[in-house]
Amino acid sequence: MKLTKLDIRDKEIIKELFRAVFTNEPWNDDWSDEEQLDAYITDLTGNPNSLTFGYFENGRLIGMTMGCIKHWFRGTEYVIDEFCILTERQGCGIGSAFFNELERALTGMGIYHIFLQTDENMPAYGFYKKRGLTELKGHVSFAKSLRE
Protein backbone atom coordinates (compact mmCIF):
# COMPACT_ATOMS: atom_id res chain seq x y z
CA MET A 1 0.00 0.00 0.00
CA LYS A 2 1.21 3.48 -0.78
CA LEU A 3 0.03 6.89 0.47
CA THR A 4 0.42 9.57 -2.19
CA LYS A 5 -0.55 13.24 -2.35
CA LEU A 6 -3.05 13.92 -5.11
CA ASP A 7 -4.27 17.15 -6.66
CA ILE A 8 -6.56 18.48 -9.36
CA ARG A 9 -4.46 16.77 -12.05
CA ASP A 10 -5.72 13.46 -10.61
CA LYS A 11 -9.36 14.50 -10.88
CA GLU A 12 -10.47 11.67 -13.16
CA ILE A 13 -9.27 8.81 -10.94
CA ILE A 14 -10.63 10.68 -7.91
CA LYS A 15 -14.05 11.00 -9.55
CA GLU A 16 -14.03 7.32 -10.48
CA LEU A 17 -13.40 6.15 -6.90
CA PHE A 18 -15.72 8.77 -5.41
CA ARG A 19 -18.61 7.75 -7.64
CA ALA A 20 -17.94 4.03 -7.08
CA VAL A 21 -18.16 4.45 -3.30
CA PHE A 22 -20.77 7.13 -2.68
CA THR A 23 -23.42 6.11 -5.22
CA ASN A 24 -23.79 2.77 -3.43
CA GLU A 25 -24.96 1.63 0.01
CA PRO A 26 -25.16 3.07 2.58
CA TRP A 27 -24.90 6.57 1.04
CA ASN A 28 -26.79 6.18 -2.23
CA ASP A 29 -25.84 9.68 -3.38
CA ASP A 30 -26.91 10.63 -6.89
CA TRP A 31 -23.76 11.80 -8.67
CA SER A 32 -25.15 11.28 -12.18
CA ASP A 33 -24.72 14.98 -13.01
CA GLU A 34 -21.15 14.90 -14.37
CA GLU A 35 -20.86 18.69 -14.30
CA GLN A 36 -21.82 18.83 -10.62
CA LEU A 37 -19.41 16.02 -9.72
CA ASP A 38 -16.60 17.70 -11.64
CA ALA A 39 -17.26 21.00 -9.85
CA TYR A 40 -17.35 19.26 -6.43
CA ILE A 41 -14.05 17.44 -6.96
CA THR A 42 -12.51 20.67 -8.31
CA ASP A 43 -13.68 22.48 -5.16
CA LEU A 44 -11.98 19.89 -2.97
CA THR A 45 -8.75 19.47 -4.92
CA GLY A 46 -8.15 22.71 -6.79
CA ASN A 47 -7.73 25.36 -4.10
CA PRO A 48 -4.48 26.61 -2.59
CA ASN A 49 -5.29 25.04 0.81
CA SER A 50 -6.67 21.75 -0.62
CA LEU A 51 -5.04 18.57 0.64
CA THR A 52 -5.89 15.24 -0.95
CA PHE A 53 -4.24 11.89 -0.36
CA GLY A 54 -4.75 8.68 -2.27
CA TYR A 55 -4.11 5.18 -0.98
CA PHE A 56 -2.87 2.85 -3.70
CA GLU A 57 -2.67 -0.92 -3.91
CA ASN A 58 -0.64 -2.27 -6.83
CA GLY A 59 -1.02 1.08 -8.62
CA ARG A 60 -4.82 1.19 -8.18
CA LEU A 61 -6.50 3.95 -6.16
CA ILE A 62 -8.50 2.17 -3.45
CA GLY A 63 -8.83 4.93 -0.86
CA MET A 64 -8.69 8.69 -0.60
CA THR A 65 -9.24 11.63 1.62
CA MET A 66 -10.06 15.11 0.38
CA GLY A 67 -10.05 18.19 2.55
CA CYS A 68 -8.22 21.37 3.32
CA ILE A 69 -5.64 22.81 5.63
CA LYS A 70 -6.92 25.50 7.98
CA HIS A 71 -4.83 27.73 10.17
CA TRP A 72 -6.50 28.10 13.53
CA PHE A 73 -5.46 29.82 16.73
CA ARG A 74 -4.40 26.47 18.24
CA GLY A 75 -2.37 25.56 15.15
CA THR A 76 -2.83 24.06 11.73
CA GLU A 77 -5.55 21.47 11.20
CA TYR A 78 -6.75 19.19 8.41
CA VAL A 79 -10.48 19.38 7.76
CA ILE A 80 -11.63 16.20 6.04
CA ASP A 81 -14.53 16.64 3.67
CA GLU A 82 -14.41 13.13 2.23
CA PHE A 83 -12.72 9.91 3.28
CA CYS A 84 -13.42 6.62 1.57
CA ILE A 85 -12.20 3.14 0.77
CA LEU A 86 -13.31 1.20 -2.29
CA THR A 87 -16.45 -0.66 -1.18
CA GLU A 88 -15.17 -4.17 -1.88
CA ARG A 89 -11.99 -3.45 0.11
CA GLN A 90 -13.82 -2.19 3.23
CA GLY A 91 -13.83 -4.23 6.42
CA CYS A 92 -10.38 -5.78 6.02
CA GLY A 93 -8.20 -3.20 7.78
CA ILE A 94 -7.27 -1.07 4.77
CA GLY A 95 -9.13 1.99 6.07
CA SER A 96 -7.35 1.69 9.43
CA ALA A 97 -3.94 1.35 7.77
CA PHE A 98 -4.74 4.31 5.51
CA PHE A 99 -5.85 6.46 8.44
CA ASN A 100 -2.70 5.57 10.40
CA GLU A 101 -0.49 6.55 7.47
CA LEU A 102 -2.50 9.73 7.01
CA GLU A 103 -1.92 10.67 10.66
CA ARG A 104 1.83 10.12 10.27
CA ALA A 105 1.93 12.23 7.08
CA LEU A 106 -0.06 15.05 8.67
CA THR A 107 2.13 15.03 11.78
CA GLY A 108 5.18 15.26 9.52
CA MET A 109 3.62 18.33 7.88
CA GLY A 110 3.16 20.04 11.25
CA ILE A 111 -0.60 19.54 11.30
CA TYR A 112 -1.81 19.08 14.87
CA HIS A 113 -5.51 18.31 14.54
CA ILE A 114 -8.04 16.51 12.31
CA PHE A 115 -11.62 17.70 12.05
CA LEU A 116 -14.47 16.03 10.17
CA GLN A 117 -18.21 15.57 10.26
CA THR A 118 -20.23 12.42 9.65
CA ASP A 119 -23.69 11.08 10.35
CA GLU A 120 -23.98 9.00 13.51
CA ASN A 121 -26.14 6.42 11.74
CA MET A 122 -23.48 5.63 9.11
CA PRO A 123 -20.72 2.99 9.39
CA ALA A 124 -18.15 5.79 9.22
CA TYR A 125 -19.21 6.94 12.69
CA GLY A 126 -17.94 3.76 14.35
CA PHE A 127 -14.84 3.74 12.16
CA TYR A 128 -13.80 7.21 13.31
CA LYS A 129 -14.51 6.43 16.96
CA LYS A 130 -12.25 3.36 16.72
CA ARG A 131 -9.52 5.58 15.25
CA GLY A 132 -9.55 7.72 18.40
CA LEU A 133 -11.52 10.69 17.12
CA THR A 134 -13.85 12.12 19.73
CA GLU A 135 -17.32 13.44 19.24
CA LEU A 136 -17.53 17.16 19.93
CA LYS A 137 -20.21 17.72 22.54
CA GLY A 138 -22.02 20.99 22.13
CA HIS A 139 -20.91 21.29 18.50
CA VAL A 140 -23.88 21.88 16.24
CA SER A 141 -24.06 21.86 12.47
CA PHE A 142 -26.65 24.07 10.79
CA ALA A 143 -28.10 23.84 7.30
CA LYS A 144 -30.86 25.56 5.40
CA SER A 145 -32.29 24.50 2.07
CA LEU A 146 -32.87 27.37 -0.31
CA ARG A 147 -34.96 25.19 -2.60
CA GLU A 148 -38.33 23.71 -1.92
Task: Give an overview in words.
The chain is of the alpha+beta class and 148 residues long. It has one domain: Aminopeptidase (3-Layer(aba) Sandwich), CATH 3.40.630. Strands 1-2-3-4-5 form a 5-stranded mixed sheet. A hairpin with a 2-residue loop joins strand 3 and strand 4. The radius of gyration is 15 Å and the shape is globular. It starts with a strand and ends in an 18-residue tail after the last helix.
User: Helices and strands, in N-to-C order?
Assistant: EHHEEEHEH
Q: CATH homologous superfamily - what is it?
A: Gcn5-related N-acetyltransferase (GNAT)
Arithmetic mean of pLDDT:
95
Spatial strand arrangement across the major sheet: 1-2-3-4-5
Helix content, binned percent: 25-40%
User: If helices are DSSP runs of H or I spanning 4 or more residues, what is the number of helices?
Assistant: 4
What descriptive keywords fit this protein?
single chain; 5 strands; 5-stranded mixed beta sheet
